[in-house]
Amino acid sequence: MYAQLIMFVCTKYYAIMRTTLDLPNELIKAAMEISGAKTKSQVIKEALEDMIARNKRAKLLTFRGKIDLNIDLDTLRDR
Which residue ranges make up each domain of the chain? Predict the structure, then answer.
């Protein structure tokens, strides 16, 4: 059985958006229990934020070994 979820998404960059989703009830319930979210909208918002954060971290890992971090602050500050 799928639950029909109508949610409002609001972030600091985008306007509120109304969206209708068909999601499995068991999946939503499990995610709410694991995350401690009180509403369906909250659990979806947290899941989206987590996915974005994981992707940003993965992109940062592509810079591994490409940036020289041997910085001497005294030299940079002309001391």
Answer: 2-61
